[in-house]
């Protein structure tokens, strides 16, 4: 255990000390020294962000339910706390037992966002754990990582001992069992364990592979160095979501977090087929929980947390086949308790209004819709499958129901995009405002505001756009300023993501092993919390690129061809590369691909159960 007197002294000097004290209602405390496997689950961002992540809560309770396994949490300390910890000689510690991370058997990081990678290096250093895997000895913990960004693990290959590719509910426990069984052996070594772990489906050990590059810097070959290292790593997924582990409780923070509510996961996967969306590809096939199971989980969650709001969460929550019935059942059961239901994002169709009528029985919240692109041509390119008229019809309907605030999400820099496409963002926002005010005066209620929010498009691995060039920073700003300059109405707000941040994200997203040097140099130069505006420094990243001899345009601005070996090609997510290329070609032609619920598009995924769903009625036949 760390020195508690020093910790208490640090806590008196920092903002939000509750980030570091633990002891929250719902947290699990076990005797650290008597456990067979000790696992530090680390979120490489601030406490308020990490505690809002459902995956962290699932793995936390999943691990702790097993006798002999202990899972404790650690988060990236805010810079004020890091400063005090380094000054006091305090290593990074877990919240529950206050043990330093170096005392754990396994230290795991969740990879949610590329701009958190430097935080991983910083957390290892703060824990007195060598940053590079090659420098760690038998006395150091095993460093593992998983999460959506692990589908391209190569930029972190020099730092992580083992990656878990896919959904962790099953594979995590398999890995821990192997560790527990082997740990008891007198001749246990990390090398032997990693060899055994490499045989588990979904496990990738980067040190067991050698990668070579051609004269242009592209991946030329990849060779396994040990017989246990498979040529292809198959991403793990849970097949029966009704039988898998689920959270019937959540840890209740002492301070407000980003999402402060009960979270109910309705299904995994998505059938929309948006060509920019990595999650929509890697989480296939769609797997729904039954309404009965969801009602059971909701009841337990609300009883165990005391929350008065439950969020229905999935990649595309409005596509749950029994959504109307589920919302009606939840409202009928909890309306008298003033427990509200929320949806993170809404589909642009008339069916959505029926759901909103149920939700508003307890409280009205802001509405968020995602047209994604400013023109129909570009929405067809990205396979969005909605029209302007869809937005306008839904807007009329929700305004008539009493809503007066709407957020619209877009992306700028999409493939084939023109200035004319981008200006559609302004046009649509003004049209929504006109719809609100061009109604009878007696119907105009509330303080109207429409917010158009634009992110800068970042091409991601395992999407049809994994081959395209990212827009340049100058082009991003030209398009942003065009839209911004066209909006002068105070009822319309336009906000946008920083193109400089998106540029670095674009470099890291499609990077290879050579980027480990970039990450290390950027961290050496002080880069942490790169996803936070106040800490991000583009100039520092440019310097790090120059000092490591790497070309940012090679990763972000270069078009790949069909034959190129991509750094992540050794991973099998289930969706075939040929299908992604076909979708890329259809995008360039502006050709739509139908929702999977309307018929199989033969993406290659196994165990897909989308047959037998009536898409229009949102019910299972």
Folded structure, characterized:
The protein has 621 residues and is of the alpha/beta class. A six-stranded mixed beta sheet has the order 2-1-3-4-5-6, with helices on one face. A four-stranded parallel beta sheet has the order 15-16-17-18. Strand 16, helix 14 and strand 17 (449-456) form a beta-alpha-beta unit. Helix 10 runs parallel beside helix 11 (351-359) and helix 17 (515-524) packs across helix 18 (538-548). The longest helix has 19 residues, at 419-437. 45% of the residues are buried. The model is unreliable at 611-621 (pLDDT under 50).
Features:
621 residues, alpha/beta, six-stranded mixed β-sheet, four-stranded parallel β-sheet, 20 helices, globular, disordered C terminus
Unreliable stretches covering 5 or more consecutive residues: 611-621
Summed up, the helix count is 20
Distance between the termini: 57 Å
Q: Helix fraction? A: 25-40%
Q: Taking all residues together, what is the mean pLDDT?
A: 93
Strand content: 5-15%
Shape annotation: globular
Q: How do the strands of the widest beta sheet line up side by side?
A: 2-1-3-4-5-6
Task: Report the major sheet.
Answer: 6 strands, mixed
Task: Give the tally of β-strands.
Answer: 21
Short description:
With 621 residues, the protein is of the alpha/beta class. β3 (106-110), α5 (117-126) and β4 form a beta-alpha-beta unit.
List the helices and strands and how they pair.
Layout: H1 4-11, E1 37-43, H2 47-50, H3 54-64, E2 69-75, H4 79-88, E3 106-110, H5 117-126, E4 142-146, E5 162-164, H6 168-183, H7 190-197, E6 203-204, E7 209-213, E8 219-224, E9 233-234, E10 262-265, E11 267-268, H8 278-282, E12 287-288, H9 291-305, E13 309-313, H10 323-334, E14 340-342, H11 351-359, E15 367-372, H12 376-381, H13 388-400, E16 405-412, H14 419-437, E17 449-456, H15 473-486, E18 492-496, H16 499-509, H17 515-524, H18 538-548, H19 552-556, E19 571-572, H20 577-589, E20 613-614, E21 619-620
Parallel strand pairs: 1-2, 1-3, 3-4, 4-5, 9-19, 10-13, 13-14, 15-16, 16-17, 17-18
Antiparallel strand pairs: 5-6, 7-8, 11-12, 20-21
Helix pairs in contact: 1-4, 3-6, 5-17, 9-10, 10-11, 13-14, 14-15, 17-18
